[in-house]
Amino acid sequence: MLKSHFQNLKIEAGCDEAGRGCLAGPVVAAAVILPMGYKHPELNDSKKLSEKQRNEIRKDIVRDAVAWGIGTATPKEIDEINILNASYLAMHRAVEKLSKSPEFLIIDGNRFKPYKQIPFECIIKGDGKYLSIAAASILAKTYRDDFMKSLAEEYPQYGWGTNVGYPTKAHRVGIEQTGTTPHHRMSFQLLPRQLELFSD
């Protein structure tokens, strides 16, 4: 059973991101403040849930949360400042969107860039330990998936309707055959090296 809060004295927001390993699309972060002592029998790390479960639980999170926010960093920003810093930027933007100011942040992972002097704790695999981080992982994942599926209607050749920008074979075949879009991260290795080099 995931824990409700890391500490019980301050207003605490859980933060997580989605899409760091993708070749296209934004990196998306979410911040969620849950009520003290909150319980949910199915809320868990988004990676351990089916798409249907994530979409159902998202409704509960939006309904039950004290506050929640979504932040994004664009492919252009990712290329300019690198994916790690873009992930921090997306998290900062998610925290900014909260309607209630948090006094403490718990971050999924082992690194974070401080935001406005708010104390924080980095928790490795936090999305499988704390409900607010798990909730943030679900909001970030579902928001990003929905966005990439909407882009797939305009760019059907990359398979974004199913791979949502991750480096699948279908995605890379689309890049090889059609080229890139404004939504691709040009600083990433979009194709394996053997496809980029041509012998004499």
The biggest sheet, with number of strands, parallel, antiparallel or mixed sense and barrel status, is: 5 strands, mixed
Terminus-to-terminus distance: 60 Å
Provide mean pLDDT, rounded. 94
Number of domains: 1
The CATH class assignment is: Alpha Beta
**Radius of gyration from the CA trace?**
18 Å
- Structural class per helix/strand content? alpha/beta
Low-confidence stretches: none
Total beta-strand segments:
5
Helix and strand element order: EEHEHHEEHHHH
- Shape designation: globular
Q: Architecture, according to CATH? A: 2-Layer Sandwich
Strand content: 15-25%
Give, in spatial order, the strands making up the sheet with the most strands: 3-2-1-4-5
Continuous helix count: 7
CATH topology: Nucleotidyltransferase, domain 5
Helix share, percent: 25-40%
CATH superfamily: Ribonuclease H-like superfamily/Ribonuclease H
Describe what is shown at a glance:
The protein is an alpha/beta fold.
Could you characterize what this model shows?
The protein is α/β, with parallel strands linked by helices. It has a single domain (12-195), classed as 2-Layer Sandwich (Nucleotidyltransferase, domain 5), CATH 3.30.420.10. Helices cover 38% and strands 15% of the residues. The chain is built from seven helices and five strands; from the N terminus they run ββαβααββαααα. It has helices spanning 51-64, 75-81, 83-96, 131-154, 160-163, 169-178, 193-196, and strands at residues 12-18, 27-33, 67-73, 104-108, 120-123. Strands 3-2-1-4-5 form a five-stranded mixed beta sheet. Helix 1 packs across helix 4 (131-154) and helix 2 (75-81) packs across helix 3. It is globular. The termini are far apart. The mean pLDDT is 94.
